[in-house]
Specification:
Blueprint lengths: L1 E6 L3 E7 L5 E8 L11 E2 L1 H18 L1 H5 L3 E6 L5 E3 L9 E2 L7 H8 L4 H5 L8 H11 L1 H5 L3 E3 L1 H10 L3 E3 H4 L5 E2 L4 E2 L1 H6 L9 E3 L4 E4 L2 H6 L7 E3 L2 E2 H9 L6 E6 L3 E7 L11 E4 L6 E7 L3 H11 L3 H8 L10 E3 L17 E3 L7 H25 L6 E5 L6 H11 L3 E4 L6 H12 L5 H4 L5 E5 L6 H18 L4
Parallel strand pairs: 1-5, 5-14, 5-15, 9-12, 16-22, 22-23
Antiparallel strand pairs: 1-2, 2-3, 4-7, 6-8, 10-11, 13-14, 16-17, 17-19, 18-19, 20-21, 23-24
Length: 483
């Protein structure tokens, strides 16, 4: 048996899988995020420790024989968070999370520093780890002076499980301290961020064993024998492992709170100015790239709150089949935007509202706006030289066939809908544990799920959506400087 832990922003999930890679049981525990000031987002790592103990203690009580057979654990975690430890391994301050924007000035300064984009392969976003430590140095100097080590959330969970400080490449690539091409900490990037290599965890590949589960925890959770803990992965890389998006052109469109268009890469081909994220994959010799939009289903959730209509009911009103783009246009920049604009100040809106505009038209416009934003991500990815070949549609928004059909037509790429099942970040983490423990190779274990339907682009409507997409793309330059 193998355990995949998905350390998310709102909760922790444990997935138990068998030797064949099939899920056996799943349990989760939720926790809260603190927002002590506008733009701040923090969590006490102690809540993660309590959550993992709660879920695995329950798992041991419910499935003692299966837990006794566990031989490996993999951890997936939300990326970019800064967990600062003192020389005794104690947490210095609450973790500053990925969606915390306080360090925007420090991010801009680092991004403008010589060699930073070239070595890290990415723009320095305010959510990345390095600007958070620069902010601490400027605003919390006493706390910063105590920092002996910095780990990411998944790395902290590894530390709790094993007592050792190690981190995988995919997670570390989002710090702005890693030379993403060389897959190692960069002396130049560390210097630019005011950090030292001695403060960094040991690097391992996500499918390599990083340490062994502490005996006291193994006994508490009913695990017998030696239990390996692998490097694990950042959440998007783990999700890619869960759906088999490992090689060039294989990827997925994720319609969650935010939106992600991700593809595997067989080589390193960064293009920072496009705001595409270029990160190490969770397995050796592979990378992945993704475009990220900040409000995908969150845009529909916003419309739901405004109209007092449940998101599922809004989706039902537009039906299943597309008939061409509407004249009403929606800009999904409710929280700013990442790819391709890297603009934290831009905000969303509707254009072309008229007396005849109704709720259905607004829902259609929201779905089209999100589809066009994902189209922007696709253009940015294609500029790096990748050809999008095989894409899965996953996430809550993929339940709307209308939305999936719209995105397929905008991208000009068929989208596969997987059969019902468990193939997210927790499964990817468990698969990494399987590979690390010798249960199979990456090619054997990281397979794509069965497909229940392929949604093809609507060729008859392709030109109409292409024209609407170009009109959408022309809108951002016209509104970006509005007060």
């Amino acid at each position: 048996m193998y355990v995949g832990l998905d350390l998310g922003t709102s909760g922790l999930r444990a997935l138990l899988v068998g030797e064949d890679g099939a899920p056996v049981a799943s349990l989760s525990e939720s926790y809260q995020t603190a927002h002590p000031h506008p733009g701040w987002s923090e969590q006490d790592p102690a809540v993660w420790v309590a959550a993992v103990d709660a879920v695995l203690t329950r798992m041991a009580a419910e499935r003692p024989e299966d837990m006794a057979a566990v031989r490996g654990i993999g951890v997936s975690g939300h990326m970019h968070g800064a967990v600062c430890l003192d020389s005794a391994g104690a947490v210095v301050r609450p973790c500053i999370l990925w969606n915390d924007t306080r360090s925007f000035a420090e991010a801009a300064a680092l991004d403008a520093t010589d060699d930073v984009r070239a070595l890290s392969g990415n723009i320095v976003f305010p959510g990345f780890t390095a600007p958070k430590l620069a902010w601490m140095a400027a605003h919390e100097p006493d706390a910063f002076a105590r920092v002996a080590h910095v780990v990411l959330p998944a790395g902290y969970m590894n530390f709790h499980l094993t007592g050792e400080l190690f981190a995988d490449m995919s997670d570390s690539a989002g710090t702005s301290w890693l030379d993403v091409g060389a897959r190692d900490w960069s002396p130049r990037l560390l210097e630019a961020g005011g950090m030292a290599r001695a403060q960094m965890p040991r690097l391992v590949e996500g499918s390599d064993v990083g340490g062994q589960l502490r005996q006291d925890l193994a006994a508490r959770w009913g695990m017998t024998g030696t239990v390996a803990v692998v490097g694990g992965a950042g959440d998007n890389a783990a999700s890619a492992c869960g759906v088999g998006a490992m090689r060039e052109g294989q990827g997925f469109v994720s319609l969650g709170t935010s939106g992600v268009l991700l593809t595997g890469r067989d080589g390193y081909a960064p293009l920072p100015e496009s705001a595409v994220h270029t990160f190490c994959h969770a397995v050796p010799g592979q990378w992945y790239q993704m475009g990220v939009i900040l409000a995908a289903t969150d845009s529909l959730n916003w419309l739901s709150r405004v109209t007092g209509t449940a998101p599922a009911d809004l989706a039902r009103e537009v039906g299943d089949e597309i008939s061409g783009p509407g004249r009403l246009r929606f800009l999904p920049y409710l929280s700013g935007e990442r790819t391709p604009h890297n603009d934290a100040r831009i905000r969303g809106g509707f254009l072309n509202i008229e007396q005849a505009t109704d709720r259905r038209a607004m829902t259609q416009a929201v779905m089209e706006g999100v589809a066009f934003a994902i189209g922007d991500c696709a253009l940015a990815l294609r500029q790096t030289g990748v050809e999008l070949q095989s894409l899965l549609a996953i996430g809550g928004g993929a339940a709307s066939r209308y939305w999936v059909k719209t995105i397929a037509t905008v991208l000009g790429v068929p989208l596969d809908l997987p059969e019902a099942g468990d193939f997210g970040a927790a499964l990817g983490a468990a698969r990494l544990a399987m590979v690390g423990c010798g249960a199979g190779t990456v090619e054997d274990v990281m397979v794509a799920p069965a497909v229940r339907e392929t949604v093809a682009p609507d060729a008859a409507l392709a030109d109409a959506y292409a024209e609407a997409f170009q009109a959408y793309r022309a809108t951002y330059p016209a509104v970006k400087d509005l007060p």
